[in-house]
Design goal:
six-stranded antiparallel beta sheet; mainly beta; 348 residues; single chain; eight-stranded antiparallel beta sheet; Jelly Rolls; globular; 2 helices
Amino acid sequence: MPRPVSDSVRAVLVSAAMVLVCLAGNERASAQQAQALPEGPGLAAKYPGDAGIREDPQVIFAEDFEEPSLEALRKRWDEAKAAEIMSLVADVPPGSAGRQSLLMTHKGGQGTGAHLYRRLLPGYEQLYVRFYVKFDPECAPIHHFFHVGGYNPPTRWPQGGAGERPRGDDRLSTGVEPFGDAWVWDYYSYWMEMRGSPPRGQTWGNSFIRDPNLKVERGKWICAELMMKMNKPATEHNGEMALWLDGRLVSHLGPGFPRGKWVFDKFVPGEGGEGIRWSDEKGGRETFHVPPGGRPFEGFRWRRTEELKLNFLWVLLYITRAPEGHVSKVWFDDIVVARSYIGPLKGR
């Protein structure tokens, strides 16, 4: 005969069961939230070739590079650096209503690239930014690329701060980047709670996808779209970030999702085992155990004051390791900034 269960033991078992149910419910809710973002056609589907999309009430800014000259184009941007390596050329993404795109041509030993920079005023709590890009097959590895973020106060030019953790009231940014020699897509993010790395705890941009299969396909037009959502209130970790490639959602991070582990300044989705972090207090590394499959991502506390908003777009090509005289070409086209998901071009 089984021994009867006492009331105290029964209470403990019921409490434990309730905790497990709550945890399971929270994980299901997180998973549902993570899957809530759309894929495939979006706002752009209403505007074949993007013709007329800048008039949509959801659209904040659109750039199709359909200008007679670079001088005319620059009037829509606060700063154009190294415009001498930019040109307007007759090469556009499939389905585009336009006739030309922006080409940046970098030559090794002659500078580090070029950029277009523009404020997005008055500033926003959430943005979707879609752009088309094509890399020449012989393009040298890219050090930094297309960035979206915020400065407080807004400025007419991009600020510095490489290797420095933002305070939470001054700046934040995320780059959508084709990482180095591996040519894989990932983020490059700066914010107030970014993780440090050895040997001195420097805070370089954090990455979050870590998928070696997410290769950049050079020689063809690619549609990339970044979503950033600010934490609100400023004390919460409920900020989010997502990335689509050719209309396919390849990453979504927010409060409780995905699961994974931190290895210094890199969040590795789906992995458990030994995690490593840099401790500013100890001035060194700490290891910790992560259960199989990882722990839920904590969400982003992008800022500690709601005066800091998303308010800039930085179309950046930054190359530092090209051989002398080596030519690298990158094309940009059909940039759209909106309040809702944009999606790829719809053919005319």
